[in-house]
Here is the input.
Amino acid sequence: MAATGIKEYFLAGFEACKTNKAKAAVIIAVIAGYSALGVSVVNAVKKDTISKLSYDQFIGLLAEDNLKAVDIKRDGATTITLKDGKKLTTNLPEHIQPLLDRMLERKVTINIDRSESYPLLSTLITALIAAGLALPGFVAAALSKEIAEDAKRILRARRQEDADEEKGTKRVTFSDVAGIDGAVEELSELVAYLKDPSEFEKHGASISKGALLVGPPGTGKTQLARAVAGEANVPFHAYSGADFFRHYANHGAEFVRQVFVKARQEAPCIIFIDEIDVIGKTRSQSASAGSASDDRDTTLNQLLTEIDGFVGSKGIIILAATNRPDVLDPAIIRPGRIDRRIEVPNPDVNGRKKILEIYVKKIPLHPDVDIEKLARSIPGFSGADVKNLVNEAALFSKRERAETVTEHHFEQAKDRVIMGAKRSMAMTEEERRLTAYHEAGHALLNLLIEGADPLHKVSIIPRGKALGVTISLPERDRYSMKQSELHAFLVTLFGGRCAEELVFGSTSVTTGASGDIIQATRIARSMVTEYGFSPLGSVDFLSRGKEGIFTLSEETTKLIDASIADLIKEATKEASSLLTTHRDALEKIANGLLEKETLGVSEVMALLPSDFPVKKIKVDLSLR
Here is the structure.
C-alpha cells in the first residue's frame, strides 16, 4: 500500500474513533491488557526456558556428580537442578528405587510429589481461564469491526469527494477553458469575490449567491465551474441533480442539509449542481404525500432555505447548470437566489480554433494541418464535439500506424462524428439503387436551392441507423434563420422521398425517409407555433398555464395541425417539381454514388454540366 493510502486510512480511522469514543476506549483497554499479559508470558518463558534431557543423559549427569536436586512428579516427569543452577527436565521410569539410592549416596536433594491429579477439573479450569481471556478479545474485535466500517465509510466518502472534485485531473483554470469568453468574463467577478470579499464590502456591494449556467450539452458548463474554483483556489463540491435522490431515497432534503454542512466547514467554496432541473422543476400543485414529486418539492424547499442564508451559508457560491431553463421553478431563479443567468453557447469559429489548439497539443499533429480551416469546417460543434473530433482523428492515425495525425485523419474523424460509424451489412443491388437515388435527391436540392446549406458530402455507405447520408454544412456560424432558409431546409428534407417516388413509383418508396419526415414536422411545427411563419400570425401557441400544461382550444389545435400539414405538402410539392425538372442531374449523381459510394462536393459538381444553376432556385412556401 502506498504511503498516501496508509495516511488516508489512518486519518479516516482516527476520525472514526473520535465519533465512537466509548468503543475506542474499550478496544484500547483490551489491547493494553493483552499487551501486558503478553509481556509477562514472554518474560516467564524467557526466565523458565528448560531444556529436556534423555534418560541416558540424566544417568550421565548423575555419574558425574553434577546434580543438586530433583523434583519427581507422580507421572514420572522430573525437573533437574544442576549444581550451577541450570534446570533441565526428563522422564523417569516407574521403578526408580535403585536410582533414588544412588542419588542419596551423592547427596542429591529429592522432592517427590504424590498428589492426585484431576484432569477433568484442570481442563475445565483451563477452559474457563481461556474463555475469560478470550471474551474481552471478542468484544474488542466486534467493536473494532464497527469502527473499521465507520473508517471505511469515511475513507470512501473522502475518496469519492476527491474524485468528484478533481476527476483525476489537474487544477482547472480559465486558461483551460476556451471558446466561451463571454461566460468567463461574467464569472470573473465571482472569482474576485471569493479571493477578497472585503473589496466588495468596502463599496457596500453584495455578490450573487449563485449563477445559472445555461447552454446545450457539451459546451463546457462543468469545466467552466471547475475553472472558477481553480482561479479562486477554493474547494469545489460537484453534484448532479440525480445525486439528491440516488444517495437518500425519499430523503433529498437531508442530503441538501449535508451538502451545506460540508460546504460551511470549507467556506469559502463552490457548490456545483449539474442538471439542476432534476430538483428545480416547477413545483407541483397537486403532489400527494410520499410521492416522487412531493420528495422533489421538499428537496427544492430545503435548497431554497439554504440559499436564503437562514442557516448561515455565508461564503458559499452556488453554480448550477442546465440545458432546460424553461422548466425551472421561478422561486429558484428569483433575485437573491440563483439570480445570475450566464449563457454558455456553442463556440464560434474563433472559439473552436482555441479549443482545437488546446486539444491538438496532446497529439502528434502534422505541420500541414490548418487549424483555422478545420475550425471553419465544423460549424455548430460544441466543445465536447471538438474534443471528440481530435480524439477520433488520433484513433484513425493509430489504426493506420501513422507517425502524425494528418488532415486526412481529421476528414475521417469528421465523417465519424457527423455521420456515425460505418456498418458492415450486405445490401441488395435494389437497396443500393434506392439509397443512391434517395441521397442523390437530397444532394441535388442542396445544390439547387438558394438558402440551403452548401453540400459537403454524400454517401451510400451505411452509418449508424442510416443506409446513406447527405451532409450539408453552413458557411458560417448561424445565430438565427430566415423564413426562406427554413423553407429551403424543408424542401431539401423531402428530396430523398420525392426522388424515390419519381424513379421507382409511389408504391416502391421505402421507410428511409422516416427521419426526414420527423425532422421536417418538428421544423414546421416550430414555424407555426413559435416563429409566426404561418397564416395564424405571430402568436405564441406554446404558452403554459399555472400547472405547466398547454392551454389550447380544440379549434386552435386543429388550425395548428392544418398549417403544419400544409407546409409539409407545399415542401413535398416543390421538391418533386425541382427533381422532375432536373432529372438528368439526379441520374448522374445517383450513378456516381453507385460507382464510388461516397462523393465530395467537388466530385458531385464534376458530374454536372458547367451551366448547372447552383443556388439559383428560390422557394417560397408561404401559405396565403
